[in-house]
Amino acid sequence: MNRASQPSALPAELPVTDRTRHRRLRAQGSLARADLEAILDAGFVCHLGVVVDGHPMVVPTVYGRDDTHLFLHGSVAGRSLAAAPKAPVCVTVTHVDGLVLARSVFEHGVNYRSAMIHGVPRTVTDPDEKLRGLRLLTEHATPGQWDYARRPSRKELAATTLLALSLAEASVKTAVGPPEDGDGPDAALGIWAGTLPLTATWGTPVADPLLPAGIEPPPHITGRGGTRQG
Amino acid sequence: MNRASQPSALPAELPVTDRTRHRRLRAQGSLARADLEAILDAGFVCHLGVVVDGHPMVVPTVYGRDDTHLFLHGSVAGRSLAAAPKAPVCVTVTHVDGLVLARSVFEHGVNYRSAMIHGVPRTVTDPDEKLRGLRLLTEHATPGQWDYARRPSRKELAATTLLALSLAEASVKTAVGPPEDGDGPDAALGIWAGTLPLTATWGTPVADPLLPAGIEPPPHITGRGGTRQG
After folding, report:
1. pLDDT of chain B, 230 residues: tens digit per residue
2. How far apart are alpha carbons A54 and B51 in whole angstroms?
3. d(Cα B56, Cα A27) in Å, to the nearest integer?
4. What are the structural domains of chain A?
5. Residues of B in Cβ contact (< 8 Å) with A57
6. Does A179 touch chain B (CB under 8 A)?
7. How far is CA A59 from the centre of its chain?
8. Chain A residue closest to B93 (CA)?
């Protein structure tokens, strides 16, 4: 077991800190680590926030995880983070599940699941840990792909920036269900109200035009077509 | 024409600043304002990055726009921003279009379209401008809804936090197409390579359980079912 995977598991209940305390109304907070993990496992792109010269920068990047850490592909943010080691980051993963269409514009909203993780990431340098982190990241985005594609060479590993971020400080927020003005005075207006769901779906694999005839996509890729992401 | 909508349109080419200069490889930058607008118009949830006590916070929120400004629902970030007026923010809108599955793990990636906007937001206080901003925001998420739902009362307007952010400083990055190792040595490995598309689709409207029978969803909502978002 390497450094990124601590032997002691994180507590099942997320700790409340100044940054993770929930304050909003319709959206519900959760302190269950299982809810955090479910949101992380339902996606593969996060938004990584860093502070560069006092300015926030929010960049999309891919991630994977184990029980205690998030692993982030750090190429995009690498330059910024290299310039500021020990700098805190905020990683947010959001799934948009649909629009909440109320009787009044004021009660409109979005159904979503969102996880926010705070911490100081560590740049992974040990080749074995980097290989393990890249496996987690690859398998998170495309289960089955690590054993199918060619694995990174030593040179490629060295050229990859990988960050590890503890999952210890995190918050979860979700909004679900119908609008909330169905039992108020606006209910008499005769306006339709409800939700309009939004679903992300995997499509049919598209072969690289340079791929020779006769090489078929493997089952772990074709099997995903038509299934829901998120 | 109110304060948020400047009479002079922004230049068609986005300016290059220290924060918007492109540095990455497979992902392509664009300086065309039309590309920025297309990415903004294809979504309705952004990730808003703010700095709170030196720590980055990245929160999802809804937005709309006109030719010169983004309008953001500021409730979630409002407390942070109220504590730090004149503070810079970074707003990122990302559409994930699919996975790039290469012969080698190293060449794997994501096809995406992403826009990043930098600036110091202004809290909209003028009731007329706030009403206009909320209309832009509502119509951006659900075209046709402003004329259908009950509009905000004066009290509701006062209870809404709306931010205006100039679209002057922005950058666009997109990655599209097949993996790039189809003409290298890995092409001989016989590994399938290509892309796995990901598409977000609007579903069938779900009525609020409290909705009386006989109120049907309007065409601007039912007409969206089955269409692509993003």
Report:
1. 344 444 457 888 888 776 665 444 567 888 899 999 999 999 999 999 999 888 999 999 999 999 999 999 876 556 666 656 688 999 999 999 999 999 999 999 999 999 999 999 999 999 999 999 999 999 999 999 999 999 999 999 998 999 999 999 999 999 999 999 999 999 999 999 999 999 999 999 999 999 999 999 999 999 998 899 98
2. 8
3. 21
4. 28-179+187-195 (2.30.110.10), 199-230 (no CATH)
5. 19, 49, 90, 116
6. yes
7. 12
8. A60
